[in-house]
Amino acid sequence: MTDVVLDGVSKWYGNVVAVNDVTMTLGPGVTGLLGPNGAGKTTVLHMMAGFLAPSRGAVTVGDVPAWRNPSVYERLGLVSEREAVHDFLTAREFLEVSARLHKLPDPSAAAQRALELVEMTDAQNRRIGTYSKGMRQRTRVAAALVHDPQVLLLDEPFNGMDPRQRLHMMDLLHNLGASGRTILFSSHILEEVEQVSGTVQVIVAGRLAASGDYRAIRRLMSNRPHVFAVHSTDDRRLAVALIGQPSVTGVEIDKAGLTVRAGDYGSFTRALPKIALAEGIRVRRLLPSDESLESVFSYLVEA
Ligand SMILES: Nc1ncnc2c1ncn2[C@@H]1O[C@H](COP(=O)(O)OP(=O)(O)OP(=O)(O)O)[C@@H](O)[C@H]1O
Questions:
Q1: pTM beyond 0.90, yes or no
Q2: CA pseudo-torsion sign 85, 91, 97, 103
Q3: Which domains, ranges and CATH numbers included, belong to the chain?
Q4: Ligand 1 in reach of 39 Cβ (< 6 A)
């Protein structure tokens, strides 16, 4: 079992603070590192992989510092976000080269084992240039697994994949986590994290905004205040009826129509149809107007 631990870690590039006093522990299983673009996810992964030194604090992998520590490279694999793979090689050749770079005693056996793990044995003798995006990505995952590391870090592994390829990759991560490895993948898409991992670390503007069980964080997100645009057959009368509702914290009418602020999503969306029915008003449209990921993240940071 290999834990990855960040203890009071900050990283700055000149004046830019990319990671700000982050403490987290990753254990076996799959964890999602969720955050909007520029939040500091790549910087966190690169510090864990020993590619970057923290400016402050400590990053350890299995109790030893990650930075400049060759023993960490033996225990850890990184699938970076953008990385060229040589199109003229076959997956088999690429894997054997990767195994030799790790100075493994039997590169051929290691390549075979890694290709089996990602289910790429059938296509292993075709050139990588002929592969789909999903197959290329699986080949890169295999290369990161060739030395059988306990820890696997993946930076935005689902980017550019179609739904079927995504499902395949999700399955793969799930199986790797179930085998006792410590898996961390970054994403800026909530649903991706929801489907793959029960544990999530949310990072916003370099800070850890939330951490722990996905469902608890999801609840926190859906319990936050919501703003809705409502169009009905009688907005003015609906506004009067809504203001008396405990789930409603504010109503506003202007030229654009009726805007309602609600304390939480569930109780408002349940109450609205009943009120409209009782008043004889038809609701034509109900649109959440603050659903951007950024607004969800900034709510978490303020919470
Ligand atoms: N080498 C660098 N020099 C200066 N600033 C940097 C450098 N690398 C990253 N940054 C800055 O640090 C912050 C965090 O970047 P990082 O790439 O870690 O975020 P991210 O969450 O991975 O974003 P993305 O998903 O867009 O890659 C950003 O403001 C970025 O501009």
A1: no
A2: positive
A3: 4-221 (3.40.50.300), 223-302 (3.30.70.100)
A4: yes
